[in-house]
Design brief:
This protein is mostly helical and 399 residues long. Helix content is 78%, strand content 0%.
């Protein structure tokens, strides 16, 4: 499973690499831009914490709904063409969120989630097909690109709203501008021909992906790391404010958390692709989460939650990039990688969708973040177990 050195950065591949990077730039800002604005949205609209949490739950439900459909569409019409369709859907959804109508915000959020789901599912297959000997490097590259603009969106949401005197609708809608260069750079890929049916999996093998215990372990790891990521992206600013930080500082810490994740977002996939198994990486990620959560349980100086934020950033960078890398490492072919990606991101994100909404409901019920933090610890423990199993050196299907 080690990557082989070869001359692979041809002009044609370089265009594709830039296209992948700019597509990846757009796969998180529509979601991470919401968290710092949750308080403003709640005050402006009068909605509950549960309803506010739904703004980050809807994209996850869209992920779950469209993820199983994307691989089949990609195989029939071409993965590159369906990725472009996903970008168009994402752009339309973000623009719709700029409307000063609350139902439009929810509909646009769901549309944006659908567009993101398509990119999430098909990029691992594109990488496996076009860069089969460089899965780790390419996964690290596009994961780092995702995290970079996820962080930028978190940090810029409040400045766009307050500093530029934009209301929260326009702040959310402004991220449609980032889609434009991605749409232009991906145009050359539309000439790529779809896979022939002979290159794909048989119907029997497609079904057997869903019967593979290893595929379910990869799915569980993907879902639980996503559960923690989206809960923290949505509610960490509110948790930090409950610890005494002002809203602006909490928003910037959310951004810093994601910037901290950048190095591991790149290096973990490269390292994982060179190791015979990934159990040690899973152990380190889980330990970072546990120590970080411990800092939020302790009522101490303000430095404690700041340290927790930094540890969360490291853990998230490692967990997200490893989960995406496993989609390629545990599959023998590009078609298998797309099928595993669709399965993992469908059930995984359905599991993750429970997070932001239920966390908001728990706070509404108990007026404390402590119950949610306890749930996060339990989720981390189960994530550790599933990651250890998913990290074993084997494939989801026999040869």
């Amino acid at each position: 499973m080690n990557e082989e050195k070869s001359t692979w950065m041809t002009p044609k591949n370089l265009i594709l690499v830039f296209g992948i990077i700019f597509v990846a730039f757009n796969l998180r800002p529509a979601i991470t831009s919401v968290g710092p604005l949750i308080g403003i949205i709640r005050e402006d609209t009068g909605i509950t914490n549960g309803a506010a949490g739904l703004l980050n739950t809807l994209p996850l439900l869209a992920f779950a709904a469209l993820s199983p459909l994307a691989p089949a569409a990609g195989q029939r019409f071409g993965k590159e063409r369906i990725v472009y369709a996903g970008l168009l859907l994402l752009t339309a959804g973000i623009v719709l969120r700029a409307a000063d109508i609350l139902p439009a915000v929810y509909v646009g959020t769901a549309m944006a989630g659908g567009g993101i789901a398509i990119g999430n599912v098909l990029l691992p297959g594109v990488v496996k097909e076009r860069f089969p000997q460089h899965v780790g490097t390419m996964t690290g590259l596009y994961t780092t690109s995702m995290v970079l603009f996820a962080s930028a969106a978190s940090g810029l949401s409040l400045p766009l709203t307050n500093g530029l005197n934009l209301d929260w609708h326009m702040s959310l809608g402004s991220w449609a501008l980032l889609c434009v260069p991605a749409l232009l750079l991906w145009l050359p890929q539309l000439r790529q021909k779809p896979e022939s049916c002979s290159q794909g999996l048989s119907v029997e093998n497609e079904a057997s992906v869903w019967r593979s215990p290893l595929a379910w372990q990869v799915t569980l790891f993907m879902g639980l790391q996503s559960f923690l990521f989206y809960c923290l992206i949505t509610w960490l600013p509110e948790i930090l404010q409950a610890r005494g930080l002002d809203p602006a500082a909490a928003g910037w810490l959310l951004s810093i958390m994601q910037f901290v994740s950048l190095p591991l977002s790149f290096f973990i996939p490269v390292l994982a692709a060179r190791l015979s198994h990934q159990k040690g990486i899973v152990s380190g990620i889980s330990l970072l989460y546990i120590i970080g959560l411990s800092g939020l349980f302790i009522d101490g100086p303000v430095i404690l939650p700041i340290i927790s934020v930094l540890l969360f950033g490291l853990a998230q960078g490692g967990a997200l990039s490893l989960s995406l890398t496993l989609l390629g490492l545990r599959a023998r072919t590009a078609s298998q990688a797309s099928r595993l990606s669709g399965m993992a991101q469908s059930f995984g994100y359905l599991l993750a969708a429970v997070g932001p909404f239920s966390t908001g409901l728990l706070f509404d019920m108990y007026q404390s973040w402590m119950p949610a933090l306890i749930i996060f610890v339990i989720v981390t423990a189960v994530m550790f177990w599933s990651g250890i199993k998913a990290g074993e050196d084997r494939y989801i299907l026999p040869s």
